[in-house]
Write a structure and sequence with these properties.
Layout: H1 2-9, E1 22-27, E2 30-36, H2 45-53, E3 61-64, H3 78-84, E4 89-92, H4 103-109, E5 113-115, H5 120-126, H6 128-136, E6 140-148, E7 154-155, H7 166-178, E8 181-185, H8 186-192, E9 207-211, E10 230-235, H9 240-248, E11 252-256, E12 258-259, E13 262-263, H10 265-274, E14 279-282, H11 286-294, E15 300-306, E16 313-314, E17 332-339, E18 342-348
Parallel strand pairs: 3-4, 4-5, 6-14, 6-15, 8-9, 8-14, 9-10, 10-11
Antiparallel strand pairs: 1-2, 1-3, 7-16, 12-13, 15-18, 17-18
Length: 349
């Protein structure tokens, strides 16, 4: 199962809205077939592994990190292919949260020896984005912060390039290639004019989301150069003439409910889910960061801390209204590791 999970990892960032899936076929103690899901709409991992194994699939054991599909979608059901190939036993990492999938019961009903929830914890960790999306139809949201050792994301003049090391920035670019979209606020676009591409890592270029309640995005900004890759989230109070101008330029505009005159982030995540955006990384300023936490849309937090002291400057998260230390938000399952000269704290809300 560990091998199947490692194989599945190869599809990271490419399979959305499908899960990452790896599959191996074992016969007489030897691996005779391997496969992983490369992209939504292409062959599933089980089919790839069965094709790789050929006739050796007969009386074999198939290992797969998530329940095989049992319904017709963009591709035929994997359960049929597994039965047709003559597989004797199927070992499954975790149940599929998609209610249309019932592969475990289907294979058992067809007479195959079947086990499920083998290395379940590791299988669920791998596909945490897919699980959240399937259960809620909202994207899995990661909040990323890069700050100095004394907790600043910029100097008092707003200068922030670059607080963290090149190694940390390259890792963030890798993370960009793994998510469906990167989100920033209007202030970040005005101040930094970012590209939000994975240019330090050879990978998929994500969609860019700008939270812009009044449609004041500069038309000359880098993000406006590729309107097909840009989503502007605005409130229903935004000027209609500006909205039409952006749509005419080919920009995707999502209009949300208004919350205190601003974009309603909960409504935004619902609408992003309808666009099959399953994962978002927020790289915003302090106000967007605090709004995202207060509105309860953040699932995971990544805090990069550089060994630098800035003094007076801008903090990473604006007011959360916390007055007592015992009311502070505790990250769940925190992990701390070094990347370049920086430290990364990785935890869940």
């Amino acid at each position: 199962m560990e091998i199947a999970i490692k194989l599945a990892e190869k599809g990271r960032g490419l399979t959305s809205p499908n899960p990452m899936v790896g599959c191996i076929i074992v016969k007489r103690g030897r691996i005779v077939g391997k496969g992983y899901h490369r992209k939504a709409g292409t062959e599933h991992a089980e089919v790839m592994a069965l094709q790789d194994a050929g006739k050796k699939s007969i009386n074999s054991t198939l290992y797969v990190n998530i329940e095989p599909c049992s319904h017709w979608g963009r591709t035929p059901p994997c359960t049929e292919k597994i039965v047709e190939a003559g597989v004797r036993e199927v070992i499954i990492g975790m149940e599929d949260p998609n209610t249309l999938v019932d592969g475990f019961k289907e294979l058992k009903f067809r007479g195959l020896k079947t086990k499920i929830n083998i290395l379940e914890k590791e299988a669920k960790k791998l596909n945490e984005t897919y699980i959240k999306y399937m259960r809620t139809k909202k994207p899995f949201v990661t909040l990323k912060v890069a700050m100095s050792a004394d907790g600043k994301i910029a100097t008092s003049t707003g200068d922030s390039k670059y607080i963290t090391s090149k190694e940390a920035r390259a890792y963030v670019h890798q993370l960009r290639s793994e998510v469906d979209a990167v989100m920033v606020g209007l202030n970040t676009v005005v101040r930094d004019d970012p590209e939000l591409t994975p240019r330090l890592f050879k990978g998929k270029d994500p969609m860019k989301i700008v939270v812009d309640s009044n449609l004041k995005i500069p038309k000359s900004s880098n993000l406006m150069k590729d309107p097909a890759k840009l989503i502007i989230a605005t409130s229903n109070k935004a000027p209609k003439n500006e909205l039409k101008k952006l749509q005419q330029k080919g920009v995707n505009v999502i209009v949300t409910k208004s919350k205190n005159g601003m974009v309603d982030l909960q409504d935004l995540t619902k609408q992003l889910g309808k666009h099959e955006i399953t994962s978002v990384m927020i790289e915003g300023g302090s106000h967007l960061n605090s709004s995202a936490i207060k509105d309860g849309i953040v699932d995971k937090v990544l805090i990069f801390t550089a060994p630098k002291i800035i003094g007076n400057g801008i903090g990473p998260i604006a007011g959360l209204g916390i007055k007592k230390i015992n009311k502070a938000i505790n990250l769940k399952n925190p992990v701390c590791r070094r990347i370049g000269n920086d430290m990364l704290i990785d935890g869940y809300l």
